[in-house]
Amino acid sequence: MTNEFATLSDFRALLAGAALADADMFAAASEHNMQLTKPPGALGQLEDLALWYRSWRGGDNTEIAAPQVIVFAGNHGVAARGVSAFPAEVTAQMVMNFQHGGAAINQIARVNGATLHVVALDLDQPTQDFTQGPAMSEDEFVAALQTGWQSVDANADLLVVGEMGIANTTSAAALACALLGGAASDWTGRGTGVDDAGLSVKTQVVAEGVALHGGQGDGLETLRRLGGRELAAMAGAMVRARCLRIPVILDGFICCAAALCLAKTQEGALDHAVAGHQSAEGGHARLLEALGKAPLLHLGLRLGEASGAALAIGVLKGAMACHASMATFAQAGVSDS
Q1: DSSP three-state, residue 213
Q2: How many helices (H) and strands (E) are present in the chain, helices listed first?
């Protein structure tokens, strides 16, 4: 299953025909949950997470033993417009840091028992400046989707996707603005920490991109026009996970902007995904609301690189441990009435 699609039309068909949650397994898991030694609903959102996870994994799959974290990296043509506090060269430098184990995501993945993969996408060939034309040709876009698709480990039982790419908050803001409406200023934040002058430039760039490409197609076409290779790769990985019935934890603003493009292309495209956290990037809360995803964590993070979602692996592991290993009333000899 490494070359399931060759064209964007093929990918849309895969997305439209992707797997659904197992309603029978959800019902069985719900019945089991009601027998555990606790008052109904006492574990709150952990109970909902356990039922959701089992409905996607099926069978007796209750332990999360092989989570995978993938960080995709790409460079953006709009970086040349001065939308970031850092130069584009930082993308490649951070990829090396990931590979040498020196980044925050290395530590967070390790303590949560996750395998980390770092995938750089043509860093020496930035996407086109989307204020001048589409960020990617269709062939480039499909290639990035394929990279994401092929990067998913079929043996993983949970997937977290993240990104690294100077100027990619600009791309994410443009996607959110184009697909959800509002002014560019509603979605454009400080990203890596631009000053007021930099924020003004960044907002203008987002507005120009949306004026040129907004309303030109569905979510995937919008992603081709305003996105980046790493955002496209995240989208490809999310869809591959859906086809393999691997639940997904979404990361921050940029990851959720890529996810939004799937949701705007196919209803229910993100049913297999939960939001790991709400980041400090201004538009993320509104984006999560539009996606209908309540964040598991709210820690004020704005790092990217899958850090918040990887932290949430521990929450989901805790939910599944309680669901699988708590005694039932019958086992404990405790009355449930």
Answers
A1: helix
A2: 15, 5
**Cα(248)–Cα(69) distance, rounded to whole angstroms?**
10
Residue 163 has what DSSP assignment?
E
Is the pTM higher than 0.70? The answer reads yes
| Nearest alpha-carbon partner for 294 in 21, 62, 48, 70 | 48
Q: CA angle 190-291-5, nearest 5°?
A: 100
Strands 115-120 and 273-275: unpaired
Which three-class secondary structure string do you get for 83-139?
CCCCCCHHHHHHHHHHHCCCCHHHHHHHHCCCEEEEEECCCCCCCCCCCCCCCCCHH
25 CB contacts (<8 Å, ≥6 apart)? 54, 55, 58, 59
Residue in 209, 161, 224 with CA at minimum distance from that of residue 9: 224
Q: Are 229 and 137 in contact (CB under 8 A)?
A: no
Mind listing the pLDDT tens digit for each residue in 197-227?
999 999 999 999 999 999 999 999 999 999 9
Give the Cβ contact number of residue 248 at 10 Å.
Answer: 26
Contacts of 131 (CB under 8 A, 6+ apart): 78, 81, 205, 208, 209, 212
Q: Which residues are catalytic?
A: 305
Q: What is the pLDDT of residue 3?
A: 53
pLDDT over threshold 50, residue 177: yes
- In whole angstroms, what is the distance from residue 123 CA to residue 160 CA? 22
**Average pLDDT of span 307-311:** 98
pLDDT digits (tens, 9 = 90+) for 221-275: 999 999 999 999 999 999 999 999 999 999 999 999 999 999 999 999 999 999 9
- The strand pair at 248-250 and 158-164 is best described as parallel
Percentage of the chain beyond pLDDT 70 is 99
